[in-house]
Amino acid sequence: MFKELGKIIFMAELGYKYIKIFKKTYFHPFITFRPAYKQLSDDRQTYSNAVLKFLNIEIELVGELPKQNKVLYAINHRSLLDIIVMESVFSKGNKNGTWIAKKELFDAFYGNFFKYSGCISVDLETGKGLLKFFKEVKKTLTKIDDFNIYIFPEGERSKEGGILKFQSGAQKIAKSNKLAVAPVFIDDNLENIFKNAPYKETKIVKVHVGNLTKHDNLENDYIAFMNEAKG
């Protein structure tokens, strides 16, 4: 019980501290798009590395992050820890980017973390909301030449294992902005890993990164990549 409580207190206190840090950049009156997103990316990555260090989790990268930017990273989704793991991966590759998240997450009790850390929300319920979202993504990619998009194509966490049917959003974003796609497979059930953390001995989580592909056949290409990664 004390182990679980200590973990929750650590992450809550650290998260609250970083919301304050994010706000300094988010509300800065003179900072422009490019340095703002770069700073928010760096701060998210620093937060994520601190959490993983506390939990005693290390990432083993299988494959390489693409050298180019303006890439859409398509990632499987099991846990909120997925974002933390991937931010750690991106920190090692010096990548700048943002997460695409459903509007509901911005309205949740931890919504300010998503809002002020530079994530982009999408309202799936209205055509007006979707139009605003696609305009914001295009504007951001136009203004920042080293930017990347991070997304969970399933749209929600899979609790049964395997891959849920992909939503259309990832493919549409890649197509409308002419983005190459990097498939990423996190080879662990992070929900259970998080429940058992922090660890006395270092827990290794493998993250597989595939070759760049096109958006045309995203779901089938991803499944083929995942099956190959699982061996």
Radius of gyration: 17 Å
Give the fraction of residues assigned to helices: 40-55%
Given the structure, what is the number of helices?
A: 9
What is the number of E strands? Answer: 7
Q: Judging from the principal axes of the Cα atoms, what is the shape?
A: globular
The ordered H/E elements are HHEEHEHHEHEHEHEH
N-end to C-end Cα span: 37 Å
Query: Structural class per helix/strand content?
Result: alpha/beta
Can you list the strand order of the major beta sheet? 1-7-6-2-5-3-4
Arithmetic mean pLDDT = 92
- Low-confidence stretches at least 5 residues in length (pLDDT < 50)? none
User: What's the main sheet like?
Assistant: 7 strands, mixed
Q: Report the β-strand fraction as a percent range.
A: 15-25%
Describe the 3D structure.
This protein is an alpha/beta fold and 231 residues long. Helices cover 50% and strands 17% of the residues. It has helices spanning 2-26, 33-55, 81-92, 103-107, 111-116, 127-143, 169-176, 190-196, 218-230, and strands spanning 57-62, 71-75, 96-102, 120-122, 147-151, 180-186, 203-209. Strands 1-7-6-2-5-3-4 form a seven-stranded mixed β-sheet, with helices on both faces. It is globular.
